[in-house]
Amino acid sequence: MQTVNIHEAKTQLSKLVEQAAKGESFIIAKAGKPMVQVVALDAPAPKKKRRIGFLKDQINVPDDFDTMFQKEIEEMFYGKE
To answer: What is the pLDDT of residues 11-66, one digit of tens each?
Structure first.
């Protein structure tokens, strides 16, 4: 992606807008620090990373998950009966 400084963007705005309209987005920087990104209005939105469900069908939670090792845990806290 092309990065241009503000002065260059002002002098070549028409050319840069045409490039963005064709799908070539660019970044405008001030003193080397990126400030804004210019993209075409009909450009597809960037895909967000999907975190929820990323392990779907890869792990199995046992039915007794809430009570697993209950006896051992109770013995650690209360001692053997």
So the answer is: 999 999 999 988 899 999 999 899 999 988 887 777 777 778 878 888 888 899 99
Determine the pLDDT at residue 16: 93
Residue 59: its H or E element: none
How far apart, in whole angstroms, are the C-alpha atoms of residue 25 and residue 37? Answer: 7
Domain 2-38 grouped into CATH 3.40.50.2300: no
In sequence order, the 6+-apart residues with CB closer than 8 A to the CB of 16 are: 4, 9, 26, 38
- ∠ CA 34-39-42, nearest 5°, is 160
Residue identified by tokens 């779907």 is: 56
* Rounded-to-integer distance, Cα 21 and Cα 57, Å: 42
